[in-house]
Amino acid sequence: MEIIGKVIATEKQPSTIEEFTFWTQKDLRLKPFDVVVVEHITDSVGHASKTFGVVEEISHMTDSPSALAGFISSDFGNVNAHSYTERIGMNYVKCKVVGNDRNIYIPVQEGRKVFLATEDEIMEALGLKEVKHPMPAGYIEMYDGINRKTLPVFFNSHFLIGPEGAHLNISGISGLASKTSYAMFLMKAIQDYALKNKNESVAFIMMNVKGTDLLKVDQKNNRTEELEKIKPVYDLLGMKMEPFQKVKYFYPFAKESTAYTHEKQAVIEERLKSGRAFQYKYLFETDEDKECLDLLFANVDDPNETIESILNFIISGGADFRGVDNWEDFKNALYAQTQTDKTKSAGKEISVMSWRKFYRLFNKSYQKCQQMFTNQLGGGVRLRDEIARIGKNDVMVIDVAKLDEESQGFVFGDVMRAVYNLKLGTPDRPDSEIPDRIIIFIDELNKYASVDVPRSSPILHQLLDITERGRSLGIILFGAEQFVSDIHRRVKGNCATQAFGRTNAIEITREDFRFVPSVYKTMLTRMKQGEYIIQNPVFRSMLHINFPLPIYKYYE
């Protein structure tokens, strides 16, 4: 181990059980998140102990009494002059205590030697040594220059996808934070892990909400230069250089196949023909179909529960809704309720103005996606039926990118309900065939779980249920958004793992970043693509990790 300095404990800045400071040479290249080791007192049987610290702040200090003294010593402001007085300087490093190898937690003492940590000590200090159920999280780069070390980081899978802890929230500026890329990296790691472990079975449902982001996840990245950069990292983490396996794509149904998707027609046709893609539809014939209507109104504030009353009236078959089993007849029956004379005999407890508002809101989404809301299944599929048949290690990519916001929410809500129904018990399918865990990935989580979403939103209620009860059922949420401060506190509070990419300077002033050290906050505002600060119950400190470019084809 290389000695780099000694502990400083002063009256104004004492060592504590939580932190300590030390001096070091001004030319030593240390950076935040680096790990150091301090000599500590012996334990009860005389064994020497070591305290581990993670660098949080680095200051430079000299014996100059004031800024003016520096000005004067440079020939009264001559920038080219040689200083009259050679100042004595040092770097002053503040560290957070993350552990002691003998579980001794009294403050480290003045004058104790400080060392750079070995690879084994780094792993022990950060809680990365002998991780049970290891699953790749990325890699860390410790120190600079000749002391540089690149080390793998592994989650304990039981604290990422359950049963001990579950759910992941990723936040960061759009484009610069690479939120989707990191989520996909983790899910690729999870699939690799599950394929290697016979006792593990995981399935994935990915919502494609932007362009063609996730519509090529089964195709390999063929950029040679990128693959050369990726390979050492994949080797380090023990991951396969292969894209996702067992992938099926689901596009919104339309007579013109590209009407509701950004995917190319030739690609859609080839995938449909080979059985790797399907077009999903929504019918209006069963009670289950009708009970999904509430999802179209998820973002409508309904303090008086008027919409709920209308939905109950429709589902119970009141007035002209009795026996209605297709969208056009439903629309006509709904329009009839907007006429003043109709409300006198049926549904009179609901005002005609409420019916008209309901009709207007429904018709808005119906007209935009009329081909998806169809009267016959034909060659299409129901998403809930496909989810009911999802197999171990299957990947379902559901494309909603080109749908309007209300229809996107409708599909997402339907997917979550279908997953819940599957995990709560399917009479015609043995439990042994159902994946132990189903991971649902949704970008732009703020659309459905922000602080501004109406409390009555059925999608919000579903998300709250998943984050609070899903772990025990094997339903895992991976969510991403630009601003974590926008997300409902119960949703983000139940995510065992938090990942922060590049973040807006205003965002880091929010309550969510209250306990993040100031230097880390500054780093968040200038992080590069492929960098994240992550937090997980197993880690002893926040980690600054890196991850590689996608192994799948993420470009046209």
The assigned CATH architecture of the largest domain is: 3-Layer(aba) Sandwich
Helix content bin? 25-40%
**Average residue pLDDT:** 92
From the N-terminal CA to the C-terminal CA, the straight-line distance is: 49 Å
What percentage of amino acids are in beta strands?
15-25%
What does the radius of gyration come to? 29 Å
In short:
The chain is α/β, with parallel strands linked by helices and 556 residues long. It is built from 15 helices and 18 strands.
Topology:
Layout: E1 3-8, E2 19-24, E3 35-40, E4 49-62, H1 67-73, E5 89-100, E6 113-116, H2 119-126, E7 134-142, E8 149-156, E9 168-171, H3 179-196, E10 202-208, H4 224-237, E11 247-252, H5 265-274, E12 277-280, H6 287-291, H7 306-315, H8 327-337, H9 352-368, H10 383-388, E13 395-399, H11 405-423, E14 437-442, H12 446-449, H13 458-473, E15 475-481, H14 489-493, E16 497-500, H15 518-524, E17 531-535, E18 543-546
Parallel strand pairs: 9-15, 9-16, 10-13, 10-14, 11-12, 11-13, 14-15
Antiparallel strand pairs: 1-2, 1-6, 2-5, 3-4, 3-6, 4-5, 7-8, 16-17, 17-18
Helix pairs in contact: 8-9, 11-13
